[in-house]
Amino acid sequence: MTGNHSILCASALEGRPPRVDSDRVAEIPAFSSIYRDYFNFVWSCTRRLGTSAEATDDVVQEIFIVIHARLHTLERPEALRSWIYGIVRRTVSTHHRGRRTREGTLSGLPLEDERQHPRPPTPLELAEQSEQVKLLSSLLDELDEEKREVFVLAELEEMTVPEISEAIEIPVNTVYSRLRAARFAFEEALARHAAKRNGGGRPCRT
After folding, report:
1. Is the dihedral of CA 158, 163, 167, 173 positive or negative?
2. Within a domain: residue 15?
3. Which of 83, 103, 165, 191 has the fewest Cβ atoms nearer than 10 Å?
């Protein structure tokens, strides 16, 4: 990773849950400790998978309801983070499908003006106001969905390739392939941004 690449990714790492030693077989933790240790992880993944700020609270709550209900099915406690991400991914996907259905049903109907009910910004929205995080978000938007997912999990959430493979249910080699392509695409996007910032000259590689 280049210096600029590392700085941008590091700016999104605050609040990351503790790493789990995959070589140590652990007991299933209590739900209260899971909620405490993984809330930020669930929140950030939910937002980075495209959930709107307005819906994130409800989706995160639903995710933890599913985690609580299915905790007894966890067969490998040492893979807890991958297991949680799998629930996040499926719950967010279901939310997106339901939202598209609702939008199709409600098309043409007037919607309530959200400005009538102002709300304070969420912690993540406050973080997104920083220039570096805005830049990171815009660069991630240039990646397709598959590349963005593995890039975020590897570079921002610092999941290992085996963890990512288990979480999104694809072969390890596929994760490596997507991650290489995602890193290259990200570097290209970052170079284009640097070129524009420097007055449109040749991209400045670090």
Report:
1. positive
2. yes
3. 103
Domains in the chain, number:
1
Q: Show pLDDT as tens, one digit a residue, over the chain (206 residues).
A: 555 565 566 555 554 555 555 444 468 899 999 999 999 999 999 988 888 888 999 999 999 999 999 999 998 999 999 999 999 999 998 988 866 555 444 444 444 444 344 455 666 665 555 667 677 778 888 888 899 899 989 988 889 999 999 999 999 999 999 999 999 999 998 888 888 877 655 555 54
Range of the domain at 70: 3-110+121-197
